[in-house]
Amino acid sequence: MEGPRSRLPALLRAAARARARAYAPYSGFAVGAAVLAGGRIYAGANVENSAYPLSACAERNAVALAAFAGHRRIEAAAVVGGEGRPAAPCGGCRQVLAEFCAADAPIAYASSKGRSVTTTLGALLPDSFGPADLLKAAAEGSRSSSKGPPGRRRSAARGRGTRGSGPPRSR
After folding, report:
1. Cα separations in angstroms, 108 against 29, 76, 111, 153, 159
2. Farthest CA pair distance, the chain
3. Which helix (H) or strand (E) holds 110?
């Protein structure tokens, strides 16, 4: 059976094809990404916006497509961007990948000229904060809290009756 690492060349090809569809009129820095989830490849490109913070990275677009298709585990990822030096995923995209990838998930990134680097998510984002951290904190919080069943906590605003659901409460 072929593993995720053996699919990296196909992921890099898909990322290169996606890069050609990037919308990068402001930076001119087109990026394509592809992720492997459930044996299928999902590719995306960066989409810039004139209001820069609203731009979306290629990696996040590829992950979103896989998640939308129902996948909650990404087995490998590839990114193609840059001319001479391969462009590694930015910090935000590393964190998004950490949400769906194991630390040993293979990640390849390459320049448009073909030079590539292969590593793992754990090497790109060591000691990452992820789902396990929140699940552990939630479990510890539910054991020490006497305010209702786990997962059913009320926000402070709801507890005060300040969230538009019904008339204000009198004190």
Report:
1. 18, 8, 10, 41, 48
2. 68
3. strand 106-110
Report pTM.
0.79
How far is residue 45 from each of residues 23, 29, 80, 170, measured CA to CA in Å? 8, 11, 9, 53
Cα torsion 152, 155, 159, 165: sign: negative
Number of residues that make up the chain? 171
Q: Which residues pair with 56 in a beta bridge?
A: 47
Reply yes or no on whether 59 is catalytic: yes
- Alpha carbons 77 and 21: distance in angstroms, whole number: 18
pLDDT per residue rounded down to tens, the chain (171 residues): 579 999 999 999 999 999 999 999 999 999 999 999 999 999 999 999 999 999 999 999 999 999 999 999 999 999 999 888 999 999 999 999 999 999 999 999 999 987 999 999 999 999 988 888 888 878 887 776 555 555 544 444 444 444 444 444 444
Catalytic residue among 2, 59, 99, 140: 59
Q: Which domains, ranges and CATH numbers included, belong to the chain?
A: 4-124 (3.40.140.10)
